[in-house]
Structures are given as structure tokens and as C-alpha cells.
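Lecture 7, part 2: worked example. A protein chain together with L-MYO-inositol-1-phosphate.
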Amino acid sequence: MTELMDFAQSVAREAGELVVRERAQADLVISYKGGNELVTNADVKADRLIRTRIEQCFSEHRLLSEESSPELQRVWDSEVPVWIVDPIDGTVNYARGHIQSAVSIAYCENGQITLGVVYNPFTDELFSAELGKGALLNGVAIRVAQETTLRRAVIATGFPYIKEGIDEMVERVRSILHNCADIRRLGSAALDICWLAAGRLDGYYESLSLWDFAAARLIAEEAGAVCGHFGFVPKDVDPQFFNKNLLIANPVLYPKLLALLRQP
Ligand code: LIP
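Predicted complex, written out as C-alpha cells:
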């Protein structure tokens, strides 16, 4: 394990312990960003912890995180390494006492995400990957499921806090339900994608923020998934960072799901 991976896993576990402790103390403070996007004081505390650890160990690095620097979007232009962090992915789940939430930490250098860690402290499951070295769950290698039949495929997705465009999303759900086995809406994109990497799901699609998927996308690719988009990708944006209309699946199902989701 490289020094960066050791650091990322250690910080993810420390932040995970913090968010479990904060919720157990039953003094969770819930507020709303932009009107209806839920955030808790634990998100902010975990974000501050991760930022502090990065500043202590890698003072020249930059941080893109949901809670403290959402404006730094063109990470691939950065001349110094960038950590891409979601301190709690699955915030609504976390605030409502569910266990499908995770700390997500990705490392980007020279325009390439080379490390990803997604840690669910409620299940003690740490998903990780380094570029070109495969994907692991608690240190054991994981691979995508080999399901090749749409009608047997279980597909995960999610929906944004802002409800505009929801009718189009419902139509996609209708198409998936007519052609696949079932849908899962688990509430954490990072864990949806890591579960696909571990063979627990067969496909995933959604539009997100970069910090939701940056780490998990590398983990899924290293586990054998195809990661792409079922919509237009701007020419000046590196696809690994583009956050609209993501589609992730094993190489056989990917084109089948692409055709399904692209239907008018
Ligand atoms: C969440 C994602 C989820 C998506 C939600 C939200 P957050 O991230 O993980 O898949 O459907 O709308 O974006 O806000 O919990 O970090």
C-alpha cells in the first residue's frame, strides 16, 4: 500500500468514527443548503477533520469538497494534486438513521484520479483502489458481477434534491423496470457504485456532483466496470470528471443499458 493510500484509508476511518460518534450523541444539527439540500453538523465536522489532516500532511495540495470548497470544479487543470472529498455521501440516509452512508476520498494528480477510498463506518466496509492495481473491499479483491441478461440485472439510480426534470427521470425508471429485473435507490452514489464494483449490483446511472463519484468511479473501473455517460459530454471536459448522465456497468451490460437509457 502506498503512503497516499495508507493516509487516505486512515483519514477515512477517522472521519467515519467521527460521524458515527456524532450521530450516537443524538445532538445532530440539521440544516438545508439552497432550500432543500440537507446537511448536518457532522458533515461540517468531518469535512474540517479531513481538511486538517490533508493540510498537516500535504500542505501544498488542494481540496475540493462538498462542504468547504465546492467552487473548485476544474480539478484536471490544477498544477498541484487535488483531494476530492465527500465527508458524508448519503447525507439524508445519515440524518435519518440509515446505515447506507460513506466517507468518500479521491486523489487527483496531473489530471488523473489515481486513488479512491469509500468507507462505510456503519458496516465497517472500506472500498479502495489505486490506478492499475485492482479494487479491494477490506483488503480482498473485488470484481463486477458477470450478469449479461438485462432481465436479470438489478440497476441502481438516484434523484437530485431539485425536482426539475423529474418526469424524464421517471420515464427512465419506467424503461428500466420494463426491461430489467429491478431497481435499487439506496441513497448513496458512492456506495451504489462500490456495490456494483463488488458484484452486488449490475448497473448504475445518475447525475451527481464530482465529489459523490470521484473515488467510487475509479474503484468500479479497477473492478472491471465500464464507466461512461448516456448523454452528451462536452469536448473540453475530461469524461472521468463529467458528472451528468453517468452510466456504469460490466462490459456486456453497458451497451444494452446505454441503448435503453438513450431511448427518446
Ligand atoms: C447524494 C448522492 C445520491 C443522490 C443524492 C445526493 P449527498 O449525495 O449520493 O446518490 O441521489 O441526490 O446527491 O448529498 O448525500 O452527498
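Residues 66, 86, 89-91, 158-161, 187-189, 206, 208, 212 surround L-MYO-inositol-1-phosphate (CB under 6 Å). The two ends are 46 Å apart (CA to CA). Keep this in mind for problem set question 3.
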